[in-house]
Inverse folding.
């Protein structure tokens, strides 16, 4: 038997949780370092996975299958393709960064916080590698609980409202998803003479779907249920209003993970399950979803312009950026799909970085109101430079990764229907508007009265803080110049996605 | 030879990285690496440009080098590659030469600025970006350079960021540019989806072979032109350039006069096979260009900030270049690009020297009589002014003459007529500037007056070096007209397009139409200069020139003649800024506010409404759970009766 590397990665954080339970809470520093250590081990293992992953062939690798509930054909089945690998690495990277970034800000109930983060990591990784529909659902729900706690316990003043909204909204979606999963399994079972074998197995379900065996009305209902669950998570317009509240109240690291990974769960679900299993329905609803995506892109950007709060601004910009992802998925173009996945990664790196940077200002000033800022370029020059870098990345400056992702989505959409690109291109101006205007009000000008009143608290960025940002910045530059590192991994997944969606793919 | 090409942009990039990371620690010497990086880049560029212009040495009519496959996606490909031909060669000369001189000049100009290291780092980044733009072999890479020069422009306009106006101007420049860039980006998408390649030479071959329908050619050309309009600050996107003067003066010279703003002209010239195949769009190019030329010249008449006059002059001259492209006088446009780059760079650096001398004052009404106090600056700026006015045999005369002649001979009489008027206006406002600054009595603050001194050598030497091409460039590469060296160099770039347009360049005739046009234009220019002298100069009884110098002469004269409407329009820049402010800042802001209100009240209101309804329903239903057995029994009884009735009703039917 080969090394079950996927299980190792997934459950390393769980071992960390067990280790943390035996460390007394008063040893906060040991608790922090232990959590970071396990997150780093998981990260190292995921990098190992990336290296060991065979680039060439499509399909899933490192498969692990164990029967779990044989009566219903439910299995513990894991496997990764290029898409999953990238998402796993993104998750493990952002997790250790988040844990490290929490060393300073989180001073109460450190142990509970770290345990929550490690449990969260288990759930997130699991979602990206589960190849059993039921197992996927379990991991999906695991994610919810620790995030609920992270916002609800360590969040800001309005945290209870925000976290309840987040949980209830997501639960509505995921319960519908459960119904859809069961309905799909029943349909599969009915089509196989009452045998449950394979009724939750992704590969078999997909093959069955490819054969056109799922009835159209089942497809429509199941797709809509799944779509709602995933659209809430992405979040797509008009299901996005939980996001600004959750982001504003969450602690910095919570925002980083929320934006960096949790939103990707929804997009991943669309690519992995919603479209390939229900291609008829996906095509039926493609245009409405494209329209919603374009609305999200433009609408999110417009609303970002007038946000008075730094975090809320970045949150709304996420709505705009994630609109690109759903657009890239539903135009059914290989170019755009590769762009969409690249955009998922970029958004994780860039928005994650922006939340970290905003959090650093909050740590020093205990405020995020843009109007109270000003003149930070002189007071915190290195912070301002780094902030400027991430802002430019977010604005899609060529040479940085954001540009490549967005451009591929644009080109792919233009090839399908120029009007899509025409309608969404204004985001080039809108994004620059909200980003540069924010930067101007925060960094330029003379030091504001509010900041001057704080006196000596404006120390520039620290070494630890730079360590949390450096991997993100390096990723942004490297992927901007050599996007092939990601694009090559996505060839297989993009082709099988389009094959499953029933679209012919060229070179 | 081609393997040398990547060095040209990479040397300044390396300079940027080193200066950016270590500049703060280098203190007073923080300019060293940046300056030497650009000098080295200039040397390599000269070698490559020479090879390209000589059509030999491994480059011939054009050669490229591919570094790596930049974006290898499914159904999309863009490479990281460079391409050099004679057109690139011309641009390389302008960009690296002026870039190097501006770097040297900045050593003196920025000597006392605490942010000097940052300034040089940005300048190096700009050189890299601009060279990337010029050398790129495919549209996406041009776009990358295009956006990066925009970023550098943003950083350098806002260099003195504590000043609010600088920060505002920087943002404005970036945003207005992005409006044009949307068009450029769409053009790239259209090219890819229609032709399946972004490599420019391949695209041009396909277009020349008829691979693009006439509709798509027009669409692509128009979209590309949108980008050019933004970057080269043509109407209606011209509003950012005058504000960009908030940046340090060397930046104005390099980026906002001599190099970056030429990028639009370069793009259209480079894409001549596309534009040549879209005659309708060519007319648009010519119209926008010549309209911008006269619009900007009319504003330059009344501005009192020395740098703003030069900025409007730049707009106007860029307008000439587009007019030239639009009428199909391709080589003349590049000619004017080169000569303008040198004399406008000179004029800006000279104005920087003036500003430096009078204690950072930019208002010309507070200058005057500086000629004797800063003689090198005066003489070199005078040369620049004569050159831009178009007095033979300086550079501007030859290049402007070719543009006007080109417009006339290709049948665009209206372009010629407007261009002719603008030539006179140019001469007038330039000598108004010279008069208010250098001639007549001094209006300088007496306090400042005592400290007026000529700039240090690092600043005056670049002025002298730039004055040389301002004088000789025309004779050197533009004589004899329309068959000079430049025409020989650029022939392979444009000949196919010119031939496809069914037009061969008519022979230049001194005794025919060309000579006549040149003489008429020259007469107008000289008259305008004399007029400016009368208003702003000093008495020269020896040659019968009488002057009554007063700084506000244009206003007084226009009021006297009942032309104060024109005066007000001109000095208010024809209210474009106010209009934009109303449309985009005020109304745009309100729109964004309204959308946010919609988000909070309608969308989020619905979400919270559903939550509230659920909660209230739960609270209401809770009353049913009283805990009294009698109530439950009653409920059961009612339920049973209801079911019985229901069953009965169904059974009966």
């Amino acid at each position: 038997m080969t090394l079950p590397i996927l299980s190792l990665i997934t459950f390393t954080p769980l071992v960390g949780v067990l280790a943390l339970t035996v460390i007394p809470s008063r040893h906060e520093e040991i608790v922090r370092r232990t959590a970071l250590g396990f997150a780093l081990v998981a990260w190292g293992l995921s990098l190992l996975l990336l290296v060991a992953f065979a680039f060439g062939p499509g399909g899933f690798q490192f498969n692990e299958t164990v029967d779990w509930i044989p009566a219903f054909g439910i299995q513990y089945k894991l496997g990764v393709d290029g898409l999953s690998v990238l998402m796993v690495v993104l998750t493990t990277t952002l997790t250790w960064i988040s844990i490290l970034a929490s060393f300073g800000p989180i001073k109460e109930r450190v142990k509970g916080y770290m345990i929550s983060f490690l449990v969260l990591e288990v759930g997130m990784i699991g979602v990206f590698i589960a190849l059993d529909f039921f197992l996927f659902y379990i991991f999906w729900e695991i994610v919810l609980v620790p995030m609920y706690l992270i916002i609800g316990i360590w969040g800001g003043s309005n945290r209870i409202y925000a976290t309840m909204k987040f949980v209830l909204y997501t639960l509505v979606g995921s319960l519908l998803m459960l119904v859809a999963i069961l309905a799909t399994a029943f349909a599969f079972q009915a089509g196989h003479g009452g045998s449950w074998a394979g009724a939750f197995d992704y590969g078999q379900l997909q093959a069955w779907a490819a054969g056109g065996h799922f009835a159209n009305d089942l497809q429509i209902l199941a797709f809509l249920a799944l779509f709602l669950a995933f659209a809430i998570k992405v979040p797509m317009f008009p299901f996005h209003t939980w996001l600004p509240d959750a982001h504003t109240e969450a602690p910095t690291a919570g925002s980083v993970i929320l934006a960096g990974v949790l939103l990707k769960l929804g997009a991943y679900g669309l690519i992995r399950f919603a479209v390939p299993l229900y291609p008829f329905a996906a095509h039926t609803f493609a245009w409405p979803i494209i329209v919603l995506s374009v609305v999200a892109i433009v609408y999110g950007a417009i609303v970002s312009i007038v946000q008075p709060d730094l975090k809320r601004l970045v949150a709304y910009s996420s709505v705009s950026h994630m609109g690109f992802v759903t657009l890239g998925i539903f135009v059914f173009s290989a170019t755009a799909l590769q762009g969409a996945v690249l955009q998922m990664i970029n958004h994780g790196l860039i928005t994650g970085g922006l939340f970290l940077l905003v959090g650093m200002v909050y740590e020093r000033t205990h405020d995020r109101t843009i109007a109270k800022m000003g003149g930070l370029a002189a007071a915190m020059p290195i912070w301002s430079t780094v902030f400027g870098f991430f802002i430019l990345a977010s604005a899609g400056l060529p040479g940085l990764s954001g540009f490549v992702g967005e451009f591929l989505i644009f080109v792919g959409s233009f090839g399908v229907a120029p009007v899509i690109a025409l309608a969404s291109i204004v985001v080039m101006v809108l994004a620059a508007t909200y980003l540069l205007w924010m930067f101007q009000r925060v960094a330029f000008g003379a030091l504001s009265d509010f900041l001057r009143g704080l006196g000596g608290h404006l120390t520039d960025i620290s070494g630890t803080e730079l360590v949390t940002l450096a991997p993100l910045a390096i990723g942004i530059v490297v992927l901007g110049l050599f996007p092939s590192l990601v694009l090559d991994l996505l060839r297989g997944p993009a082709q099988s996605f389009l094959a499953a969606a029933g679209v012919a793919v060229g070179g | 030879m081609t393997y040398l090409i990547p060095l040209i942009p990479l040397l300044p990039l390396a300079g940027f990285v080193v200066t950016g990371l270590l500049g703060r620690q280098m203190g007073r010497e923080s300019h060293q690496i940046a300056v030497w990086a650009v000098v080295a880049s200039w040397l390599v560029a000269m070698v490559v440009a020479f090879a390209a212009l000589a059509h030999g040495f491994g480059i011939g009519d054009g050669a490229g080098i591919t570094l790596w496959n930049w974006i290898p996606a499914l159904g999309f490909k863009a490479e990281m590659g460079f391409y050099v031909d004679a057109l690139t060669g011309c641009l390389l000369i302008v960009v690296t030469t002026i870039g190097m001189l501006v770097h040297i000049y900045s050593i003196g100009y920025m000597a006392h600025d605490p942010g000097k290291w940052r300034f040089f780092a940005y300048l190096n980044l700009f050189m890299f970006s601009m060279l990337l733009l010029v050398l790129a072999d495919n549209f996406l890479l041009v776009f990358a350079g295009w956006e990066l020069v925009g970023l550098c422009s943003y950083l350098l306009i806002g260099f003195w960021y504590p000043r609010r106006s600088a920060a505002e101007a920087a943002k404005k420049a970036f945003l207005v540019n992005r409006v044009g860039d949307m068009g450029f980006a769409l053009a790239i998408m259209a090219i890819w989806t229609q032709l399946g390649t972004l490599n420019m030479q391949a695209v041009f071959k396909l277009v020349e072979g008829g691979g693009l329908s006439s509709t798509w050619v027009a669409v692509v050309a128009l979209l590309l032109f949108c980008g050019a309009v933004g970057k080269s600050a043509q109407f209606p996107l011209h509003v950012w350039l005058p504000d960009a003067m908030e940046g340090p003066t060397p930046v104005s010279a390099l980026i906002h006069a001599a190099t970056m703003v030429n990028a639009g002209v370069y793009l259209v010239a480079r894409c001549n096979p596309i534009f040549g195949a879209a005659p309708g769009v060519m007319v648009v190019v010519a119209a926008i260009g010549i309209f911008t030329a006269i619009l900007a010249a009319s504003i330059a008449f009344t501005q009192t900030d020395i740098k703003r006059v030069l900025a409007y002059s730049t707009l106007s001259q860029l307008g000439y270049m587009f007019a030239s492209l639009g009428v199909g006088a391709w080589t003349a446009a590049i000619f004017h690009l080169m000569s303008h780059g040198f004399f406008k760079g000179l004029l800006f650096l000279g104005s920087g020297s003036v500003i430096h001398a009078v204690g950072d004052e930019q208002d010309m009404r507070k200058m005057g009589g500086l000629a004797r106090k800063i003689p090198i600056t005066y003489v070199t700026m005078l040369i620049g002014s004569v050159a831009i006015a178009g007095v033979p045999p300086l550079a501007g005369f030859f290049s402007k003459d070719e543009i006007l002649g080109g417009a006339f001979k290709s049948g665009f009489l209206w372009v010629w007529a407007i261009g002719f008027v603008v030539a006179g206006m140019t001469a007038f406002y330039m000598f108004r500037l010279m008069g208010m600054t250098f001639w007549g009595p001094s209006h300088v603050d007496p306090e400042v007056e005592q400290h007026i001194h000529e700039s240090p050598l690092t600043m005056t030497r670049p002025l002298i070096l730039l004055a040389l091409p301002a004088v000789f460039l025309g004779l050197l590469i533009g004589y004899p007209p329309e068959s000079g060296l430049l025409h020989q160099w650029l022939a392979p770039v444009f000949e196919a397009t010119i031939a496809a347009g069914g037009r061969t360049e008519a022979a230049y005739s001194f005794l025919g139409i060309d000579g006549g046009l040149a003489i008429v234009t020259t007469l107008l220019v000289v008259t305008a200069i004399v007029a400016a002298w009368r208003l702003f100069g000093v008495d020269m009884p020896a040659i019968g020139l009488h002057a009554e110098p007063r700084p506000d002469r244009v206003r007084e004269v226009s009021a006297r003649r009942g032309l104060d409407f024109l005066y007000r329009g001109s000095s208010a820049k024809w209210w474009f800024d106010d209009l934009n402010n109303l449309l985009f800042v005020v109304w745009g802001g309100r729109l964004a506010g309204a959308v946010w209100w919609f988000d909070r009240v309608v969308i989020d209101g619905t979400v919270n409404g559903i939550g509230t309804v659920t909660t209230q329903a739960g609270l209401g239903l809770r009353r049913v759970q009283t805990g009294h057995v009698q109530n439950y029994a009653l409920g059961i009884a009612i339920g049973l009766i209801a079911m019985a009735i229901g069953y009965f009703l169904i059974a009966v039917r």
In short: The longest strand of chain B covers residues 63-73. Chain B touches chain A through 49 residues (CB under 8 Å).
